[in-house]
Amino acid sequence: MNNPTGARKGLSLSDPRVRAWLFQVVTVVAVIALGWFLIHNTQTNMQHRGITSGFDFLERSAGFGIAQHLIDYNETDTYARVLLVGLLNTLLASAIGIVLATVLGFIIGVARLSSNWVIGKLAAVYVETFRNIPPLLQILFWYFAVFTALPGPRGSINIDDLFFISSRGVNMPGASMGEGFWPFVVSLLLALVAIVVMVRQANRRFDETGQPFHKFWVGLLLLVGIPGVCVLLFGNPLQWQVPQLKGFNFTGGWVLIPEFLALTLALSIYTAAFIAEIVRAGIRSVSHGQTEAARSLGLREGPTLRKVIIPQAMRVIIPPLTSQYLNLTKNSSLAAVIGYPELVSLFAGTVLNQTGQSVEVMAITMGVYLTISISISLLMNGYNKRIALIER
């Protein structure tokens, strides 16, 4: 007897939805089973070899120094502190590298499309040269052929008695918190909030009345004026120390060690070559009719590129740009070759050798890199979703 109209049909593998759910369930079960097998097998092998497991080693004293640390650190601190120091060093190199690579990549990408033959060819030579040299070789070149080849501290390059460039790195004036530091931070946050409110109000006014507003100058006035008044009331937020040569090295101020400089420059220059091609492809993807329409309205080439072409090209640029940011962050682990104290060098290198907790150390290291990569992806995907075209 046929089912009456509206009756529920039975489960059948001929139904695509049933097959889809079945394949997903089977996949999840298989992944869980594989994970359980690997964990059980690892624990069994470690027990047979008398290797202890657990994360108690993180509370033990490290007993070694670190050349660069953004937070207070000494040899008596724990391995957990070493993990944090390595993480911050990795994030510092990655963040600065991403900014430099983005700026340089956009400049080179636009230059490749220049009508000037010399500029276009120079940009092409840059791209074809640096993207075809492995990043490890570029790091080694900057470290051994450039920075370590500089003269020692006594023969350093002196710039206005403020900056000293030597084989020990770049020494520069360093800042420490003054009595007006926290009021200055609060005033800066208030200025940023005021700028956001002002921009939104100006945009709403423009949409309703068509009257423009000098957002840039008003924003600049707020950004300078509010913190400036705070400095007058509470004093200087920062106290500066100038580096001085004492003995065989400099004391005081900040120092950018050669390992950090070599890593940052190499990764920035290498990644910028790929970003340049992404930018060039994104600009090429915009219809030439957009350029002709902008010219018919009297826009010059500069405003046309900034206000018409680039905003539309960003929808094509962002997805592959995210991949390059992830690659740069992961390539920072190559710094272990030149001894830069980043996550892999400190934690997966020194800490692993001292403690022998290979499984735990590698699990933590991979988990940290996974978290960093997912965070970058979420931020870039959120921005990509924000600028995506919305059909009406």
UniProtKB/TrEMBL annotation:
Localization terms from the record: Cell inner membrane; Cell membrane
Pfam families registered for this protein in UniProt: BPD_transp_1
Annotated transmembrane regions: 21-39, 91-111, 181-199, 220-240, 260-279, 334-355, 361-383
InterPro entries noted in UniProt: AA_ABC_transptr_permease_3TM, ArtM/GltK/GlnP/TcyL/YhdX-like, MetI-like, MetI-like_sf
Zinc keyword on record: no
Molecular function GO terms recorded: transmembrane transporter activity
A Gene Ontology BP annotation from the UniProt entry: amino acid transport
Family (UniProt): Belongs to the binding-protein-dependent transport system permease family. HisMQ subfamily.
Name used for this protein in its record: Amino acid ABC transporter permease
Organism: Pseudomonas parafulva
